[in-house]
Amino acid sequence: MSHLLVGLTGGIGSGKTRVSDMFAKLGVSVIDADILARDLVAPGMPALRAIEEKFGKHILDNSGMLNRRELREKVFSDPEQKHWLDNLLHPLIRQELVKQGKEAPSEYAILAVPLLVENQLNKLVDRTLVVDAEPQQQLKRVINRDDVSEEHVQSIISHQASRTERLAIADDVIDNNGELSQLQPQVQKLHEKYLKLAKISVKA
Ligand code: ATP
């Protein structure tokens, strides 16, 4: 059972996956909000039934899985539907994140939440860890990784929280503006700090 929940966040391409993989290698449980959100709408789950009731059968594909593209298109053009969907999924995601985080076998758990700042999920965790990279680095890395246009990435960056907003709520920051080799020592240092904090919270 973990005694400290650390929310890990950062903008697109900031290096969250790289960092969370390093924590995982150190034996820390990492709970990924994106995976968890997908699992909540798997066939047979109550949330998928609610979505089907709201939008009709055509929101599912032939194998009964959620047609995400169709759903995205529906809510994209209709704020009311988007609001309905967020109201359904967000509380479930929050609840499940904390549950899985607390039940995790490591002394502390990392909750990897890309939109932590945007959805104010920093309130759920004991500490917020921000992976920080300049927009120029984010652009370069995502274009390299995904083979997408600069405009595409720029548009995502501009719809996300700004670097300043993220840093304003950070308790800890990993600087990922340099070489990949500079990440590991920062992760190691934080790991030791979180182990200590987790011990203190057991005693408290
Ligand atoms: P997303 O928000 O899109 O899920 P992310 O925050 O998880 O992205 P990563 O996938 O970890 O980011 O990193 C983005 C890309 O940049 C990857 O291809 C990764 O290997 C690369 N990368 C990350 N950090 C560095 C670095 N310091 N130097 C060079 N490349 C890097």
UniProtKB/TrEMBL annotation:
Keywords: ATP-binding, Coenzyme A biosynthesis, Cytoplasm, Kinase, Nucleotide-binding, Transferase. Gene3D superfamilies: P-loop containing nucleotide triphosphate hydrolases. Pathway: Cofactor biosynthesis; coenzyme A biosynthesis; CoA from (R)-pantothenate: step 5/5. It comes from the Bacteria. CDD domains: DPCK. GO terms for molecular function: kinase activity. PROSITE patterns: DPCK. It is found in: Cytoplasm. It catalyses: 3'-dephospho-CoA + ATP = ADP + CoA + H(+). Its main location: cytoplasm. The keyword Ribosomal protein does not apply. Belongs to the CoaE family. HAMAP family: Dephospho_CoA_kinase. NCBIfam families: dephospho-CoA kinase. This is Dephospho-CoA kinase. The lineage of its organism: Bacteria, Pseudomonadati, Pseudomonadota, Gammaproteobacteria, Alteromonadales. The gene is coaE.
